[in-house]
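Below sits the subject:
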Amino acid sequence: MRVGSTTPDPEPRCLSLEEWAALPEDEPGELLDGMLVQEEIPDLVHETVVAWLLATLRAWIRPRGGLVVGSELKLAVARRRGRKADLCAWLPGHARLRGRGLVRVPPDVLVEVVSRGPSDGRRDRVDKAADYAGFGVRWYWLVDPERRVLEVLALADDGRYEPALSATRGTVGAVPGCPGLTLDLDGLWAEVDELDLSEPGPDDAG
């Protein structure tokens, strides 16, 4: 509610995918059944993990002719549903992608960094998983910095994801779908541990 105003907030408006795609870049939200829904608010831990993964994936995939991009890319996952993932990657040999507007070609690899809230975890593990499977994303990564675990899910013939890899530490040298890629999980968690991971107190507000 707006302070000092007696005008009620307008009813939410149903949007098409094209209208969602045309929203200003600073307008947050994903499109679920035509309605704009608030996204999670990432913290520094989340963004540190995203930055590490982007640098690691880019170093592996670009020399091979693939593409990896960060968040805010708008994916048309269904007729009335639009998602924004933390990372999207198209493996070598992918079709040429349009540089403007909605992305309608499913990434080969899609990554979500799981946030701490229970609703955020359910969104990534259940709701988004269903949307990405329906979209045809072959490999879905879930990276949980709280539990210190990487999970890779593979799209099965029945259209659902099944576990393909789970790792917590060390160097992962056999990443499903990504031959030649190695992931130094110890290095990733070391970068996270450079942050002050204590809970914020009342003196931190401002």
About this structure: Residues 1-9 have pLDDT under 50 and may be disordered. The first strand starts at residue 30 and ends at 32.
